[in-house]
Hints:
This protein has helices at residues 2-12, 40-46, 59-69, 79-91, 126-129, 132-145, 165-171, 184-194, 202-213, 250-332, 341-372, 384-401, 421-437, 470-473, 497-507, and strands spanning 24-29, 35-38, 96-99, 105-112, 118-124, 150-155, 160-163, 219-224, 230-238, 241-248, 380-382, 405-409, 416-419, 444-451, 457-463, 511-517, 521-528, 533-534. It is α+β, with helices and mostly antiparallel strands. It folds into four domains: 2-129, PAS domain (Beta-Lactamase); 132-248, 2-Layer Sandwich (Beta-Lactamase); 254-367; 377-551, 2-Layer Sandwich (Heat Shock Protein 90), CATH 3.30.565.10. The chain has a five-stranded antiparallel β-sheet with strand order 2-1-5-4-3. Helix 3 (59-69) packs across helix 4 (79-91) and helix 13 packs antiparallel against helix 15 (497-507). 21% of the residues are buried.
Amino acid sequence: MGKKKHHNEMGNTHPTSPLYLPKQAVAFFNANHALIACDADFQEILGLASDLVKPNTPLSQILLSCVEQDQQAKPEEKNNQVLDEWLYFLGLGQPVVFQKSNQLLIQLRTAQMTDGGLSLIVSDASSCLVGGLTAIAGQLQTVVESITQGISLFDRNCNLVLCNDRFLELMDFPRELGKPGTPLADLFRYNAEKGEYGHGNVEEQVNERMALSYKFEPHYLERTRKNGSVVAVNGNPVQDGFVTTYTDVTARKKAAEALEEANKSLEKRVGLRTVELQAELLHRIETEERLTKAMGKEQVASRAKTEFLANMSHELRTPLNCIIGFSELLKNEAFGPLGQERYRDYSVDINDAGVHLLEVLNDVLDVSKLETGEIDLRECEIDLIDLMNSSYKMIVYRAESQNISFNLDLPEDLPYLYGDPRRIKQILINVLSNAVKFSTAGGKVSASISLSDSGDMCFDVVDRGIGISPEDLVLVMEPFHQAGEALTRSHDGTGLGLHIVKSLVDLHGGTVQIESQLDEGTSVHIRLPSTRVIDKKVLSNKPEKITDVGKAGTKPGVQSLY
């Protein structure tokens, strides 16, 4: 009863009142689109017979009854054809509007339910859609003119209902073709006559496009016009017609083409670079193969050199020992005077030459062993004071013969050094003899041993001799390099001494630094790491002090104190 009263109040409300609420009704259908139930107003609004609101009534049968009531249907249209169109639009979620004999406009809309069924909502749309599509077009004209896209609306007969100026501008149509009621065929014909569709019969081109338009199917295409502009055309059907939007995508199209061209260029460059990389890789592989072969040859040559030096060591040392031994006897006149003073001088020269040649041979063999890694350190605790004094005695005669003063600075309580005594002595002799060799007559050489603040063992040898030029200083520790020109150099030697010194210091984990100025002298600084320095107080047993290579006996009981 309350519902009936509400209905009467609605009937007394004027449709144009802002308080007007459209009358609605609803019906529910199962997954097979058969009626489940509906409210009382559903039958009344649609004007259905009682047998059409019984359960299990097909949706299509209810809609067909509405189609038969539609006053807007054209005489030539068949009911089943219109029904198919309604079902199509309802399936898309779009509303369907028809006009009853009492001039009321009824809107139908479906909504899907979770169980697969659907609901059919019926509402009185008279106040909203008075005048049909034409009235809607009039109400939308102001709106569409403010849209930046072109827009056109055609009715079921493909006659223009409305369009905006942007549509005429984009498609280059004259203003008279934008009047409502203009057939779509006239627009196609105008384009065909201008050659927008290419060469061909104008009427055939028009008929072909009209046939597609009458299908009222959604479509999207991009048209490149004669002036080079590109327009995206997007058409969608609506009830009693279709609406189409037109968008100028020229800039976007050009950007896409530019991007595609850039991608092609990049792909081409990548392809070329790939070819270059493949060629480079092939070249590297070939180079590595050549280097591998060269290294193999070098290894063979190195082995041959090592074998040669090993053989020559025996072959040369044996006669040299004889030469040095017999010349020593002759020099000292061990078995009586030689008689002639020149013979004694000759024996001295022979002895000096033999000793020098043996030193050269030993240097060459040492370099060879260092390069092949065949030198192993025989390490023990070393008394450096005794070792330095022993080394000093071997070169002091030469210093005195050249009137060179030699100063030794050795601290009294110097820790032991853990290393190879023979190699440490070799280092000291090389450095000291170089200082004497390159000092001028009446010069001065000083040598010292000390501990640095960080606990490293330092050897410093300074002379005031001829010095080394800056360009030679960076090369003096390279093998066979000697400072000064070969023709003007007044000092003998192989150029291996400092190279051997650096290699042996490296084996002990130390560093060598040389400072020199031409005609002012040279300073050699050797530093061995603190891990090789052993305080005498921490030794539980006194180790045997190693003072010379010949006294390097068994290693003390302390194995490793660093």
